[in-house]
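haha ok so turns out i had the wrong file open the whole time. this is the CORRECT one, sorry everyone. sequence first:
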Amino acid sequence: MDKRISTHAFKLAAGLLGLRSHFRRAVIAGLALGTLAQAQAAQAYVITITGGPRSIYLQVGAGGYTGVYTSGGRPGNNSTVNVVSVTVPSGVVGSGAPQTMASNSNVSQSPIDGFVFCNPPSQVYIGAWSRPGPGSGVATLTVTAPANLTSGGDAIPFSQISWVMSGNGDTIFQFPNGSFTGGTQVLATFPANTWKEQCMTFSYANTLVPAAGTYSGRATYTLSLP
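then structure:
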């Protein structure tokens, strides 16, 4: 079967050296999502679509929306790969004290309506929508990461990095909290004409004592519609 797939990647690096209650989850009728075969953006709306081709949009960190959806904004592509990183002070390496990671993404506003939803640099925006057109397919959001972050011949398991989902004014969470498993994980499904968004706060577990160095690896988020 034909698939339309949108992917968005960002890099995780662990440095080891010495409306306006936010009206999300509302039901809106008679609106149409912008058209884009490969996309990137936003939170749980159910939107009645009167027509239009199959389209999906995915955004992790920097995105490609011009304007905002509620004001006629249009989705586009953005090849930016944002970095999430932390430098662990030498005195606490391996102590088991989790280290909050920060991102170089400055995305705070939702592409839906411009609401200040996330708080960079500690939070990374993630959102997506799916419109199967005349079909009824369910889109799936996954994230794939390698087994390890690496620095030369040294490694830290990717499972040392976890995330917590939240968002300003949010009470219903659309994506699960979790940690990377060193493989592909399903994060959410998107029934027809559904838009979901959240803000990710990443943390490094810091339970290991690796060699000094800058360890890096890339996680790739993929939205697919059968």
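The radius of gyration is 18 Å.
again sry for the mixup
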